Protein 1
Amino acid sequence: MEEKDKENNGSSGGTTRRQFLGQVGLAGAGLQLAPLLAKATGILPDNEALPIEPITVNIMINGSQKTLTIDTRVTLLDALREKLMMTGTKKGCDHGQCGACTVLVDGRRINSCLHLAAMCEGSEVTTIEGLAKGDDLHPMQAAFLKHDGFQCGYCTPGQICSAVGLVKEGRAKTDAEIRELMSGNICRCGAYQNILAAIKEVQNA
Amino acid sequence: MEPFRFVKAQDNLAAIRAAGINQAKFIAGGTNMLDLMKLNIETPKQVVDINKLSLYKIEELQNGGIRIGALVKNSDLSYNPYIIKNFPVLSEALLSGASPQLRNMATTGGNLMQRTRCPYFYNTDFACNKRVPGSGCAAITGYNRMNAILGTSDKCIATHPSDMCVAMAALGAIIHVQGPKGSRAIPFADFHLLPGQTPHIEHNLKQDELITHVEIPALPFAVKSYYLKVRDRASYEFALASAAVALDIQNGTINGARVALGGVGTKPWRSLEAERALIGAPANAQTYRTAANAALAEAKPHKDNAFKIELAKRTLVRALTTVEGMS
Ligand SMILES: Cc1cc2nc3c(=O)[nH]c(=O)nc-3n(C[C@H](O)[C@H](O)[C@H](O)COP(=O)(O)OP(=O)(O)OC[C@H]3O[C@@H](n4cnc5c(N)ncnc54)[C@H](O)[C@@H]3O)c2cc1C
Ligand code: SF4
Ligand code: FES
Ligand code: FES
């Protein structure tokens, strides 16, 4: 490696054997290796006897308390859709890249596909199903209808939850700012112009 | 996703202890961990949720610096008034990254530790030395338009994807960590590692060391600082090239300069070469071009990314020109 690189930007990891053991060896270490590893790194072997058990979580969803016993791997999105049969929240990419799964957790918009349900203990979750009061649509829902803020509608629950979060944050003033702060929601149908109009109407109301 | 045991840590020590078990991993926002776990690129046996820990504070320090808790959300950090006023480059870098939803989840510690977005690292059908040590590098011979031109090795040419880290590199941040044997401070430049022959070793943190906070030392001239990110679409996209700069210009002469580049390096890339070319020189276009040439002098292009050399230079010149305009 160049001396120059070192001065600016440090070194690579190849230098210490301890790190090498710590990071590579662990992945494939057999059981006999475990005590040796523990000595070199301080990392204890996994207690294989400790079972991986389902987990129980209490989540307030749209104002009603839910207790779920679920596999630790279940995301908030899958808990909503597959366990609670609340299919309003959509799965687009499942990797944080589209915004279809946007819900509000403790008032803030997040991607429910990258959030473990197990991490929601004690949280308050609002989904698209929780925005209307009975038959009275939430102003954002009404504005999306009025301005035709969708075509196929698949991205719409995420767009609406995200827009509700955006208005609450209160940071987007200009059209450009609204567009930037709605950039986490992709619409394959390209309803952006009408979504913008809907959001502006709610902001100005 | 592989099955895992879920542990919610109640305090730092409990978290550190729980992470000291074979194949344990912390989870904070989860935006990188879960993404990679769904693809079986990360396969922890024990996931340690650290969100209960008291690491949410942003504290102004007596000397003008700032101390940022590891769990501070990227959105909260980006909108912090003290950061906006004194370290605008950091706020701008954060706001240029990901989406509002992701920034509401992503944490300071998680952002420091996020892994590369190299498409071959993400696809388990391809050889990748970072994912499977010794398996080869599909990017070197494959489509490498997004890959790095600085700090590469014959084993890996992946970029470090973070925007926040580029600003922190320029600001000379210090990362504070706690392990079973106590705490230590790691200068930013030493935190991330070059790929060298071991691209799977990406940072200087042990498995059971917890990032507790990040300190940004006082840098008065950082009130005039700026982050410029160039990418394939206007938002919600990683950088092709980016620049974090701060300039101290007195009577037309540059007295102090900080420069770091993103999107081009295998780690957040502080350029002392560019800083040297700037300090003491007149604040003008020619100086900026000289600095940009110095920053990219060692750049090594691959088949599809030679364009990044000129792009990074122009990005840096534009950023420096913008900061001069603030004076
Ligand atoms: C679609 C998409 C687009 C994105 N675009 C951008 C972008 O443009 N620019 C950008 O910079 N980033 C971008 N990101 C990445 C995002 O910024 C990171 O995923 C995020 O910062 C990770 O933080 P987290 O808290 O969610 O980390 P997690 O996913 O919880 O954890 C990531 C890693 O950090 C470790 N970790 C977390 N906290 C600690 C701690 N306190 N101590 C020790 N280890 C810890 C975990 O063990 C894990 O290895 C994007 C992500 C997605 C999904
Ligand atoms: S560049 Fe690095 S991360 Fe990408 S395929 Fe090669 S080894 Fe893997
Ligand atoms: S499904 Fe969550 S962002 Fe696409
Ligand atoms: S309305 Fe079809 S994806 Fe947005």
Protein 2
Amino acid sequence: MYEFEYHQPKSLEEATKLFADADDPQFMAGGQTIIPVMKQRLAMPSDIIDLGKISDLQGISVDGGALTIGAMTHHNEVAGSDEVRKAIPALAELASHIGDPAVRNRGTIGGSIANNDPAADYPAALVALGATVQTTSREIAAEDFFTAMFETALDEGEMIVNVTFPAPEKAAYEKFPNPASRYATTGVFVAKTGESVRVAVTGAGACVFRQIDFEKALLGDFSPSALDGLTVSTDGLNSDLHASAEYRANLISVLAKRAVKHAG
Amino acid sequence: MPVISLTVNGNPVTADVEPRWLLSRLLRDHLGLTGTHVGCDTSQCGACVIHVDGKPVKSCAMLAAQADGAQITTIEGLAQKGKLHPMQEAFRDNHALQCGFCTPGMVMMSVALATEQPDLDEPAVRKGLEGNLCRCTGYQNIINAVMVGAKAMRG
Amino acid sequence: MEKYGIGQPVRRKEDVRFLTGTGTYIDDIKPDNLIHAVVLRSPHAHAKILDLDTSEAETMPGVLCIVTGKDWVAEDFQPMPTKSAVNKKIDGTPLNQPPRHAIAIDRVRYVGEPVALIVAETLVQAQDAAEVVEVDYEELEAVTDQIKALEPGAPQIWDDIEGNFCIDFELGDKEGTGKAFETADHVVKLKLRNQCVTAAPIETRGAIASYDKDTGKYFLQNATQNVHANRDTFASVLKIPSEDLHHMAPDVGGGFGAKNSGYPEPSLLLYAAKKTDRPIKWIGDRNESFAADTHGRDQATTVEMALDKDGMFLGLRTRTVGNIGAYCWTVGPFTPTGGSARTQGGPYYIPAMHYTGIAAFTNTMPLDPYRGAGRPEGSFQIERIVELAARELGMDPVELRRKNLMPADSLPRKTPMGLDVDTGNFPEVFERTLKMSDRAGFAKRFEESARKGLRRGFAIAPYLECTGGGPKEFAGVKFGKDGSATLRVGSMSTGMGQETSMPQILSDTLGIDFEKITYVQGDTDATPIGGGHGGSRNMEVGGSAVLQCAREVLVKAKQLAAHLLNSNADDMELKESVFTDVKTDQNVSMADVVAASFDQSRLPDGMEAGALDTDTIFEREIISCPNGCHSAEVEVDPETGTVQVEHMWIVDDFGTIINPMLADGQVMGGVAQGLGQALMEEIVYDEDSGQLVTGSLMDYALPRADSMPKMEMAFYEDAPTAKNPLGVKGSGEAGCCGAPPAIVNAVLDALKEDGVTHIEMPLTPEKVWRAIQDAKQQGA
Ligand SMILES: Cc1cc2nc3c(=O)[nH]c(=O)nc-3n(C[C@H](O)[C@H](O)[C@H](O)COP(=O)(O)OP(=O)(O)OC[C@H]3O[C@@H](n4cnc5c(N)ncnc54)[C@H](O)[C@@H]3O)c2cc1C
Ligand code: FES
Ligand code: FES
């Protein structure tokens, strides 16, 4: 690892200032992505600003039909939270399948979505549930938040504060894990809320995306068979060591059907 | 260099750490606790799992500086007064280790699983160990040991 | 009370150390004054080194020494020779063996080849300096696949070795086999691969080297499986006498063959240690483990079988091409040649067999033994062709196997491959496995799977092995006045528990307290010779040496006991640690005999104090033939291609079982590696660039707790071998022989209605899914 300065601010203001004053700073949440990356010398920030001690970033709360999760909330907290299990069980389920127990004890929702790994799980939930990302300067709709592979709408020094999820009527997430890394080779999150159905796909492309034709088909008939006969185009899908675009297209169909069934 | 204070296996420790030191490095190179092993660069193998404030974490994916104020338990802190922890005993009785390299992480993860899930069943053990790789045992004896150890921990 | 005799499941001594975090692995050792090294490795699969400039790196903070190919040339250091037992081509000329230096001289031939060793006060300083070493490469075309490497026009890896050809080899009766095929009613043919995999021990490789100016001696602590042979290799590289290198292995975190080899790094470290006059540590990281630990398997094979109209096997013909990488490593060329040849045909009675093996050079990390070293490949070849034959002939695969197994009364028998199979009962082992496998319940489980939209399949795979490794082993015992004993053995454990099982043999034979036995291994100064660990030889050769040593001690102890009791050695009987005169009933304890052995006044004429101390060398005449049978039941999700192995049943004939708990452990560990090969593991190089694609645990999948089936095991113990005094047959590699064919054939059984007849390993979800799609299309 290269040398860097380490800071542990106690407030968002302090963090923002530290960021502004440094050469090439980076925020650190759970460190489950950034530490392995720095360890392999693939990144060399001048300053690491650890967000772990900022109370504004913590906590899970429910307000009416909406669930708000602080950016620094660990995956295990989401998985085990009674509030989450009650409001959006599919989200708790998703969190319980990220990495492994040790990773879930450190990794955070803020870090996961800020990183926007194409194979990360949370982005599918945010997009399918129509979540809103609250940052230090604005609110961003999930769909506008994830812009490209490892890229988000966040500006330099802008921090994620929390994420708010409207509770759906029905929702489920199905993941096909990469046998080596445990990330999603492909993951499909399906959510039905009133008159809207959303199907968000992660792991298959450069960035999370919605499968619009599936959504249309499910709007009239929220059942697995509604997707029969629909094929997924391989355009824009990833091909790598573990899965070709064609195979991922198949996974999208299979996982979407399973998610719909699972959502009930 | 940040100065941090923490508790390691019940003993207070104060250390002058470089920001870039991993917690695994602090434990192994500076505190001489070499039971915590490092088996990979990408935080996949789990050989380095320890408890931070009672929870299992990968010490290769945490900075030493982040452990300021933490209560840390490593494999060396598990046996009490020369008596093996029930989980260690179960690993030995069930031949749940061969080369022993994955063992510290396995045992620490297993103790955490048994503590968090008192009604641990076999599928839960298999899932709970998803971040701990062993190349020697084929896992079956580890799974048996965790079931036995968990039972012994319940008393 | 625990019992410590042979056959007891004695809990392991070493476990307390490993379970409390007090083991001593290489990276746990920290000599005073320690400095650190990193290896700069080739980023290219094939390139000329036009220039290598270390001038800036040398000025970096903390840098003490940089070793490059220039030093190697200047010092005239020697290449590392291959020790392959097969070393002549079919035409009698020697194998093509290019020089394998510890460091690249002017050309690199695989990604990961050492180019420079950078030594600094701290690891970070060494890493920093490595980044500014400037190497000017001229890239050359690369080839990573052995079949392509042998094609005309392929990139030439060695200027003076035409066609990337290392060696060819044949065994068996070519003409007779040809005739069997001509007269056969059926001929079945299959092309298949045993893909390239790697051992991936959880502890990566590492070493600490130092040099003592005053004595002129080098000291190397090394995470290795074999201290003696590798000492000789490193000494020959550095042109020093072997005695000047003390080579020791601390606790080793798994090896499986990949820590057997004479690697480049230790020689570089030893040289740098002398230059800097400081102890130097190098610990490979996981990426280096994938790039620069020897690889395993990697054979592309055509296998053909001739059968008569009733399905009796008439002939087997195998032609395999092995990828041995860019160099002949320690014994690399042996694996696809002799290594796979001898157990061809497995436990079946096949009158005519012929085997051809070719080893080819490619731009990849070289091959060396990996758990089984050729035998798992052979076992997979025969079991796949048998399964296919059953399919093509419309016969029940169980029935086809049953009728072709070597009958019990055909043993002892020399197979057409020249393998002496002395004892065993293949039909009995097969039937026992089948009985354990709950075939009666299969139909119900099949229905249950079908209801969930899943397929279920079953297969059984008997295997025949022969154990390998060096034929000689040393054992020595030294007693203490307090009745303690130190047992030194030249074979080595890297996790298999010899620290427990070897003392078990000593304790059993001599009645000395198990707890008072100290075990020493992996130290060239403690034992004059040693074969290390490899080819499942530990118990067979090392254990036999311990038994031989114990028996020699016993002879002397009886004499001494007789002297103490004023009676005859012949009348002495040792039982529960006490010698009793069968005639007079007088007795003396073993502990007292040991004590007396240090008291000249109590010794008979001709015995000196310490008379019981004994060193011995055991030499086996001939290898043993472990065998057994695996069966597997699998569930396949046809929509995603995911395979879950649900259950495996295993019966092994390892002759005498010294410690059933440890033998079970060996089997299960082998099965996990076999399952890994069958379903998920593969070293992949990019075909065009020769880059290693699977360079981390993010890409190379290893089996986890939830990948593994329930395993039920039993031993067939009625056929101990007479080839060694213990009656043991090696157990370490069996799992890798049985599991891959059992699992792969079970998957194909599950997909038989889909029309799938073959899928190459590893059977990843995508490959399984694709095979189903392809079969659908063909059927349509
Ligand atoms: C072995 C292993 C397995 C894993 N498996 C999975 C998996 O299956 N699925 C999955 O989705 N993920 C997986 N992960 C990743 C894991 O979920 C990480 O926790 C996550 O990607 C990053 O979260 P973090 O809190 O650790 O962020 P960090 O690593 O601390 O930070 C990641 C990035 O986010 C930025 N950042 C962090 N917080 C904020 C904030 N509040 N505002 C703005 N920027 C911020 C940082 O600057 C950094 O660039 C795995 C990781 C490991 C090590
Ligand atoms: S060292 Fe492998 S997970 Fe920490
Ligand atoms: S015991 Fe060797 S890796 Fe688990």
Protein 3
Amino acid sequence: MQSELRCTINGVVHAIDGFSSEPLLFFLRDKIGLRSTRYGCGQGTCGSCTVIIDGEAKMSCETITKDVSGKTIETAEVFENQHEHPLVKSFIEFQAGQCGYCLPGILMASKSLLDKKQNLSRLEIAEALDANLCRCGAHSRILDAIEKAHQLSNEKGTQ
Amino acid sequence: MKNQVPKPLLDYPKLGDWLKVTPEKKLVFFSGRVELGQGNITALLMMISDELGIEPEKISLQTARTDMTPNEGFTAGSMSIVHGGQSLRSAVATLRQQILNISASRLGVDAIELDLSSGQILQKGSFCFSIDEVLDQIDLSSEIPAGAKIKEPSQRWVQFREIDRVDLVERMTGAPFVHDMIEEGMLFGAPVHPANMYSKLLNLDVIALSKRPGVIKVVQDGSFVGVLATSQRFALEAAEWAREKSEWKEIDRKIENPISHLMSQSHDFEIVSETGDVNKNSGEWYELTVSRPYIFHGSIGPAAAVAKWENEKLTVWTHSQGVFQLRDALAGVFETAEENITVIHKAGSGCYGHNGADDAALDAAILAKEVEGIPVKVVWSRYDEFHAAPMGAAMSTKSRAHLDQDGYITAFDVEVTSVPHSSRPGTGGTPNLRSAVLIKNSKLPAKSPDVPAIRGGGAERNAVPSYEFGPVRVKKRLVHDLPFRASALRSLGAYNNVIVNEGLIDEIAHRNGEDPLAFRIKHCVDDRSKELLLRLDSETKRYKENLKESQGWGVGYARYKGISGLCAVFVNVTVDEGVVVDNVVSVSDVGEAISPDGVKNQIEGGIVQSISWTLKEAVKTDGLSTTVDSWFDYPIIKFSEIPSLNTILIERPSEKPLGAAEISQGPAGAAVSNAVRHALGVRITELPITREAIINSLLSNEI
Ligand code: FES
Ligand code: FES
């Protein structure tokens, strides 16, 4: 039996079907019901399906579910009740976004970045987000928000 | 302020058309507008709160659905606040007066002594009771008087001035989109879209397709093929398989290069406006032609919809811009009465005009018809989005300007050659939905008449420059025989027309040694535009100094549709390997800004999207269909390419609101192309201004 395969998603342990070649994107959306992870292209070219796997930002449409066995996954739902998290707070402060279709992926990409690195410049943040597309043109506010969140977490880190 | 009756109020004159009171004594307002990600709901809620005197969180807003709200046409053209919001204001003012009157008779005082604030009735500032207590006495059948007295500008915005987007957090961390809808027993559909909507299906192994993983049913109707499956993944995979295995007969109308095709037309132009005789004998004529290719809307989330048939009645959830128009178009396709169809708006990815939303709704409806009572969700694949969705129309504009001896432009003559900028559902009286052409009982689209002048025109939008240039003539030539579907992409013809006109103005200024901004300012039509350009000038002086060889600056200005929001944009660029936009400063005037930050957000989005169009975007085609399979084939602007943006809004609280979402695309595109011209000394006249285009134009200028 394959039922030993498991992964942890937003702190909850889930069983994985070890035979399936299902992309993680659809596993999250359809099986687990975490639908903030969004289908944009299914080709690894837009970033709207970005989640965090063991600390790294990954495109879930390009990740096969059985390969995340034993790993820890975070999706944008972790922020659902965490409006005080520096990223969520500053996205709200800067009203960073329009249609918001791109935002969960961008939040995940930037969370993984800020969790790992300190003292990033705006350009470094921007370059780290180049795999995430936004068509509404909300980039500038999104960068403002991430920079501010970064500042907040840097301050915390040095205290 | 003069009180004109906004059009929606003429069609929906009763209070009950615009609001209801729930049994829980909650006020629900109706708007025929939809939220497209531009912050509409928030702005409309702010207008209601402000007019009534109640916290936005205590009321709610129902956006467009055919069985409940007024039909306000398409949510497009930056008109939501102008028409929709102003109608709601009149309705709310009527409601407010009724509440005050009812309260006055209850208290035995004169209504004039009462005030309504934070949902409370106040008499000389002291609390009497909550409005909840009188809501059940509201007469919803009463008419909204033509001269409904809305608040004076000086009484406005005492409270609730800057509120956050009400829907932002859910969009960030939740699942509010039509793509996310889940219902008991739902099936997942996927259409098999051919390369062109006139393709005919020759061969497909339907049995093999029905055996693909997860497939429940294959639906075929004429050349329409679709699958119903147990999950979105299986539906998408089966449709992709079918596309690869199927054979189609293509039409023999290949047009390899849409722009040269447009340029080679010789049928007559139609004069769309003429304010005097543009023929001048003395002085000098200058001329410029600029073209833009087909451009994708490129929504990040592909088109999607949910549909369900029950007892011959259809319900559709869609992110369409016009639920009523979609309903009528669907009624045409299924040959049923409009009453049998309910269309409900639900959030989608930003659409930027007429994209594939309506087409996906028909796909879902065709598939759902095969499974009575079961909701079917269709989410297009990225392939569908890049092949089946309508695209921003290719066009070319030639402008000529006459300069007199005193250095003033005294005549202006414009020729626009374009694919029509509209094929929305219902245009020309046909459904205009992609799969409606594919099905057996095929409904071909009528020739599009383009968008009429009364709605700002389509191809010719903003062909009339926003300056005092003496007589102006605009001629338009529509080209109908391209095999691609054209959309109404944000700002329609205004984008290209503003680039040409502002480019020509720049050329004349440069060649006559005048400062481009000063040259514009001396031709301003009014103080409002002059103030805007002077402000732009003073805000950007430092960016014009100490420029390197490879750097340049440029400006673009237009008043959208000639009567709407004013926007002037300055950019400076570095032209090296390609073009890098370094800084953007914009100054805008949208009259009364309901949500100033929301307006800025829209203007910034327009600028960034326009930079992307101008520097990067062109749909590649094989003459019949696009050849774009992924974002790699169609790059758009990335985070690391975003310039610094300084977005200035001149607020005019006592003017009427003018709309914001489409005012910056033309000016931004013009500013970028003028800045490149300034840096290079050569003008790129075929958009986009890619590295390749620059090299080609430098080479051809050396010869
Ligand atoms: S959906 Fe995964 S990158 Fe686009
Ligand atoms: S906010 Fe719409 S795609 Fe980014």
